[in-house]
Amino acid sequence: MYISRMSKPPKGLKRPRDPVQLGKLLGDILTGQVEDSVVDARNAAAVSLGSKGGKARANSLNKKSVLRLQRKLQRHASANMDWERAASTHTRPSQC
Predict the structure, then answer these.
(1) What is the reported pLDDT for 84?
(2) What is the Cβ-side half-sphere exposure of residue 16, based on CA atoms within 13 angstroms?
(3) What digits encode the pLDDT tens for the residues 3-17?
(4) N or C: which end of the chain has fewer CB within 10 A?
């Protein structure tokens, strides 16, 4: 099983681990006694460039590269279907 890296906590108000303290904090936030703010620490210039990257790459690919990427995507999709089918029947997937 693949386990991804743990995400970083938000840069706002830290949540206590104690359930009673957490309940009090949530009550204070809901009643407006404490302001819950999340600070976005990302670079605005990098965020704006990141949204343009996929479109720019798609426009720069030639037909051969597009077909190669489509075949690769199709292979991965069929492999995932094999694994899902195997997981549902509790058997090993067929060997290629």
Answers:
(1) 79
(2) 9
(3) 556 566 556 677 888
(4) N
